[in-house]
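Hi Q.,

Before the meeting this afternoon, I wanted you to have the beta-D-glucopyranose prediction in hand. No need to reply - just skim if you have a minute. The sequence and ligand are here:
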Amino acid sequence: MLRKLLIGTALATSFAFSAHAADVKEVQMLHWWTSGGEAAALNVLKQDLAKEGYAWKDVPVAGGGGDAAMTALKAMVAAGNYPTASQMLGYTVLDYAAAGVMGDLTETAKKEGWDKSVPAALQKFSVYDGKWVAAPVNVHSVNWLWINKAVMDKIGGAEPKTFDDFIALLDKAKAAGVIPLALGGQNWQEATMFDSVVLSTGGPEFYKKAMNDLDEESLKSDTMKKSFDNLAKLVTYVDPNFSGRDWNLATAMVIKGDALVQVMGDWAKGEFHAANKTPGTDFLCYRFPGTDGSVIYNSDMFGMFNVPDDRKAAQVALATATLSKSFQSAFNVVKGSVPARTDVPDTDFDACGKKGIADLKKANEGGTLFGSLAQGYGAPPAVANAYKDVISKFVHGQIKTSDEAVTELVKAIDDAK
Ligand code: BGC
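Predicted structure with the ligand bound:
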């Protein structure tokens, strides 16, 4: 992989020297934002850039969580065909930076004061070797429940504060003949839900030790076994057709009232927003029971490649637009996420967005802000993929017990490290 990437670098560099033409007024962007809510959010960016005279060359690769997109990106980079930027998650940015294929936005960052406005947790992934290599677009958080309000009223449910409350609520939905839990049976969705289950079962310190420090004792502990048992319990509330379902179709089940709740990152709120639904009236957003006070985050970054000189001005325009305060508000209102800057007012955000912004601030200050392992912020991609694989095998019955699950998890993570 590295060797191939480096051949790509050489090609791109020779390109750069031979480029005498005028600046190319085009931004080429690889991303996996193909759902209704995601496309609406991306439009905010396209329009901002169009106002500055930049054409948009879209490279969409469908598949939530971005695994398919990252495979496509690898092929492009190996061929020396760098996009202006690519959507990327955490450790993936660092991998590409280590391979020497990223550009350097430090001059722009200095001019714009990014080091003062972007939270340190994000700078760990957007700055490599002292250079800005990516522009953070947002902060998403995965430990949320998304609930249909009419169904909640119908079953007489209240906000679940503990895991047991949650099970009691799911039972009420089941008794009323509603699908209790909308889940898409794809490994990244299952693992994203499991992130929350681990935090709820073990608490903040346990989450950090197991999911960020990859501490072996924690990974094979009774608390981790209990987390798997809790996951197994949740899966009993899923409808039989869940295998392979896309995340946004699971969200649609909740929007339509076919299901009570989805456990998903706040990109789900982008779907409610696109369907003109209002929090408090049409839907409810609660923290995953037992995780209030902590935030498991991921952040979409636009990784900036070392493009030929005639494409650098477009890249700077993209990065500047992305981190502007007005864009950070307008985009994230539609996307469901919260700003990647600490100085953006919450005025335009709905109640869930305001809560998301306040929760992030509190978690950041209180030391309870943790990277999502499922979403590329807990460990490098090889480890995250091994984790997703084990969780999925457990959900789909190839791994049968929680004892077996922790053994497989430790082994898979060890092999991937
Ligand atoms: C990204 C979100 C995206 C979601 C589903 C996550 O990995 O961070 O921006 O909406 O996948 O596609």
